C-alpha cells in the first residue's frame, strides 16, 4: 500500500524541520512527510497532489485552505485561540513526541478507511514472557532493563506491564491519558486502526517503547487469554517491533494461555525455602494441567546479589544488573548476532 501524504506547513522553518526530522525518524510512520514554509509552494503542491493530513501552524492558516478539500486538517495552535471550531487544534509548543501522539489519536478517531498497515520487515516479533510466582525478585526491574538494553542495540522493542499496581506513572513523573486497557478495547472495535491507536498511546523511556499499564487492573479482568494472543498477533502484523516484552502477573486472566503463546519465558527464582516451595508448587501445577510446553520454554534466572541498583528507570542500562544481562542473557537471546 502506498503511503498517504502528511504535509507540514509552517513558516517557522526551524520548528517545521525539527518536527519533520522527528517524524521521518520514526520508521513506523504510515505517511510520506512533506514540509512547506512558503505559501506559494504549499498551495501549488496541494492543488496537484492528494494530501491526506495537513498540520498547519496557526499563523499560516487561512480560509482558502478549506477549499483544498484535504480530508484531515490539524491546526498547530500557538496561543490557544480556536480559529475554526470544525477543525482539530493541538498545542504547537510541546514535544514532538506529544504532537505525533495527538495526531495519531485524532487520525484513529476520525479516519474511516485507515488502510490496514502491514509489517515491512522480514523478521518476526519475538514474545518474551517474564513471570515468576515468587514476589520480590526484581522482575519488573529485570524486564525494563532488558527492554532498554535491547533498544540500545537498535532492536525495536515494546514493553507491556500487567502488574496490579505498577506505580510506573509516579516513578517516571508522568501522567498517562490512556493505557493498555484502552488499547484492548479499541482493538475489539476497530482492528484495522490498531497501528494508529498504538502510536497515539506509546510512551518512551530511554529508547524503550511502552504502553502504560492499566490504571485499574480490574479493567483487564474481562479480557481472556485468547484475546491477548489475538492482540499480540496483530501487533506483529502491523508494527516493526522485533521484541515484545510482557511483564506478567497473576492479575492476568488466563495467564497460562498467554505464557504458552510466548516464544521465550524468563522466570526469576530465589533458592531460599519460601521461594523454592512456591516454585515447586508452580511447576507441579504446570505438570498437572498438562502445560509442559510452558516449562519447556522457560529459562530460570537466579540473579546474583546486586549491591546497588539505579534509582531512576532512565539509568537502568548502567550498573551490575545491566552487566549481568549483557553477559548472561544476551548470548542465548541474540545468538550469533550477539557475537
What does this structure look like?
- With 339 residues, this protein is of the alpha/beta class.
- Helix content is 38%, strand content 18%.
- The protein contains twelve helices and twelve strands.
- The strands form two sheets. Strands 8-9-7-10-6-11-12 form a seven-stranded mixed sheet. The protein has a five-stranded parallel sheet with strand order 2-1-3-4-5.
- Helix 3 runs antiparallel to helix 7, helix 4 packs across helix 12 (320-334) and helix 8 (225-238) runs parallel beside helix 9 (255-261).
- It is elongated, with a radius of gyration of 23 Å.
Rg over CA atoms: 23 Å
Let me know the number of strands: 12
Number of helices: 12
- Topology order in helix (H) and strand (E) letters: EHEHEEEHEHEHHHEEHEHEHHEH
Q: Mind describing the biggest β-sheet?
A: 7 strands, mixed
What is the helix fraction of residues, given as a range? 25-40%
Structural classification: alpha/beta
| Silhouette | elongated
Mean pLDDT: 90
Low-confidence segments, ≥5 residues, pLDDT <50? none
CATH superfamily of the largest domain: P-loop containing nucleotide triphosphate hydrolases
Q: What's the number of structural domains? A: 2
CATH fold title of the largest domain:
Rossmann fold
* Spatial arrangement of strands, main beta sheet: 8-9-7-10-6-11-12
CATH C-level class of the largest domain is Alpha Beta
Assigned CATH architecture of the largest domain: 3-Layer(aba) Sandwich
Q: Report the portion of residues in β strands.
A: 15-25%
N- to C-terminal distance: 37 Å
Amino acid at each position: 500500500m502506498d503511503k498517504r501524504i502528511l504535509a507540514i506547513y509552517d513558516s517557522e522553518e526551524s520548528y517545521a524541520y525539527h518536527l519533520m526530522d522527528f517524524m521521518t525518524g520514526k520508521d513506523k510512520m504510515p505517511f510520506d512527510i512533506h514540509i512547506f514554509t512558503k505559501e506559494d509552494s504549499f498551495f501549488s503542491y496541494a492543488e496537484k497532489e492528494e494530501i491526506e493530513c495537513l498540520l498547519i501552524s496557526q499563523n499560516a492558516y487561512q480560509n482558502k485552505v478549506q477549499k483544498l478539500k484535504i480530508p484531515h486538517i490539524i491546526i498547530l495552535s500557538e496561543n490557544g485561540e480556536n480559529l475554526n471550531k470544525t477543525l482539530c487544534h493541538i498545542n504547537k509548543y510541546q514535544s514532538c513526541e506529544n504532537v505525533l501522539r495527538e495526531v495519531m489519536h485524532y487520525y484513529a478517531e476520525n479516519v474511516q478507511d485507515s488502510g490496514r498497515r502491514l509489517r515491512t520487515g522480514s523478521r518476526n516479533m519475538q514474545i518474551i514472557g517474564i513471570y515468576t510466582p515468587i514476589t520480590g525478585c526484581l522482575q519488573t526491574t529485570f524486564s525494563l532493563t532488558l527492554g532498554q538494553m535491547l533498544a540500545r542495540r537498535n532492536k525495536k522493542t515494546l514493553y507491556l506491564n500487567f502488574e496490579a499496581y505498577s506505580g510506573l506513572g509516579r516513578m517516571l513523573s508522568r501522567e498517562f491519558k490512556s493505557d493498555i486497557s484502552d488499547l484492548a478495547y479499541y482493538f475489539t472495535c476497530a482492528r484495522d486502526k490498531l497501528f494508529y491507536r498504538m502510536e497515539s498511546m506509546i510512551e518512551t523511556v530511554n529508547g524503550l517503547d511502552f504502553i502504560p499499564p492499566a490504571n485499574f487492573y480490574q479493567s483487564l479482568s474481562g479480557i481472556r487469554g485468547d484475546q491477548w494472543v489475538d492482540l499480540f498477533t496483530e501487533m506483529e502484523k502491523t508494527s516493526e517491533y522485533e521484541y515484545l516484552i510482557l511483564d506478567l502477573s497473576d492479575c492476568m486472566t488466563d495467564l497460562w494461555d498467554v505464557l504458552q503463546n510466548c516464544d521465550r519465558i524468563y522466570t526469576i527464582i530465589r533458592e531460599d525455602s519460601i521461594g523454592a516451595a512456591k516454585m515447586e508448587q508452580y511447576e507441579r501445577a504446570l505438570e498437572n494441567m498438562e502445560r509442559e510446553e510452558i516449562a519447556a520454554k522457560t529459562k530460570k534466572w537466579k540473579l546474583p546479589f546486586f549491591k546497588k541498583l539505579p534509582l531512576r528507570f532512565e539509568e537502568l542500562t548502567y550498573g551490575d544488573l545491566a552487566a549481568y544481562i549483557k553477559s548472561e542473557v544476551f548470548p542465548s537471546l541474540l545468538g550469533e548476532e550477539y557475537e
